[in-house]
Amino acid sequence: MKKLNLRDIKKAKQSNLQMLTCYDFQTAQIFNNTDLDMILVGDSLGNVVLGYETTVEVTLSDMETFGKAVRRGAPDKFLVMDLPFGTYSTVNQGVHSATKLFQTTKCEAIKLEGAFPYQLKLIERLTQTGIPVMGHIGLTPQSVHQLGGYFTHGKSEDDASRLMREAKALQAAGCFSVVLEMVEASVAAKITDELSIPTIGIGAGKKTDGQVLVINDLLKMGPLTPPKFCTPIADLYQLKTELINRYLQDQRK
Predict the structure, then answer these.
(1) Is residue 181 flagged as an active site residue?
(2) Is residue 225 situated within a structural domain?
(3) Is residue 232 scored above 80 in pLDDT?
(4) Is residue 252 part of a domain?
(5) Euclidean distance between CA atoms 66 and 47, whole angstroms
(6) How many domains does the chain have?
(7) Do 36 and 77 touch, CB atoms closer than 8 A?
(8) Of 108, 113, 166, 181, which one is the catalytic site residue?
(9) What pLDDT, on the 0 to 100 scale, is given for residue 144?
(10) Which of 3, 4, 115, 127 would be 8's cystine partner, CB 3.0–4.6 Å?
(11) Cβ–Cβ contacts within 10 Å for residue 168, how many?
């Protein structure tokens, strides 16, 4: 499959774009041989790979290490890198962090959470510099403590209006796409209709322009129950446990 570029993705309204997270070289090699549209090296690696309680502990160095591994494994895929917590608290800091991550991982785009004025200014600066940016609103895991937990956004009229304003502001600032995480499905559908750039949903219904899921949830690679919006297509945790136990039993015979 031909590697997508920024123009391809911008044109991909209503085309069911598919993006999955990836954190390691071997999984990236698998993805590179599929028709997957985009790979996200998410700061969710803090939860599913490093065992952190939240994504807040993930560092820029962590993202560089995992991003470079995925890039080596999937050179033919459009790669998006999360900018981790605390690395874009100011515009200047954000420009420095994003530039470093963009250069070291050889990714095609950076993703950052939120749509506050300084973040919009940062997005403008980055896109002017030549770094494509994917926005992210709704549930923004880096702000989980400030938000007061994990919950669906857009249930009230005021909250729905806020999300619409944020989505339009991100588009105006130069984002080529916006992730809508845990946004009320009807609100996500309206935002998708209003924007000229693709929306990527996660727990936001089926009427976005694409979907993204954490591969560890999709394949149930850990013992915990995946989020309600993800129906696993396998249970690799149970399978690997059974296979390892079988091996150990065979060795002890």
Answers:
(1) yes
(2) no
(3) yes
(4) no
(5) 14
(6) 1
(7) yes
(8) 181
(9) 67
(10) 4
(11) 15
Q: Span 89-111, mean pLDDT? A: 98
pLDDT band at 222 (very low <50, low <70, confident <90, very high): very high
Q: Is residue 126 part of a domain?
A: yes
Residues 115, 153 contacting (CB under 8 angstroms): no
Secondary structure, 3-state, the chain: CCCCCHHHHHCCCCCCEEEEECCCHHHHHHHHCCCCCEEEECCCHHHHCCCCCCHHHCCHHHHHHHHHHHHHHCCCCEEEEECCCCCCCCHHHHHHHHHHHHHHHCCCEEECCCCCHHHHHHHHHHHHHCCCEEEEEECCHHHHHHHCCCCCECCCHHHHHHHHHHHHHHHHHCCCEEEEECECHHHHHHHHHHCCCCEEEECCCCCCCEEEECHHHHCCCCCCCCCCCCCCCCCHHHHHHHHHHHHHHHHCC
Q: Does 251 reside within a domain?
A: no
Pairing of strands 17-21, 109-111: unpaired
Question: Among candidates 32, 55, 19, which has minimal Cα distance to 179?
Answer: 19
Q: 């600066």: which residue's tokens? A: 125
Comparing CA positions, the residue from 236, 216, 234 lying closest to residue 226 is: 216
Which residue range is the domain that position 196 belongs to?
6-218
Residue 147 is predicted with a pLDDT of 63
Report the amino acid identity of residue 51: G
Q: What CATH number is associated with residue 82? A: 3.20.20.60
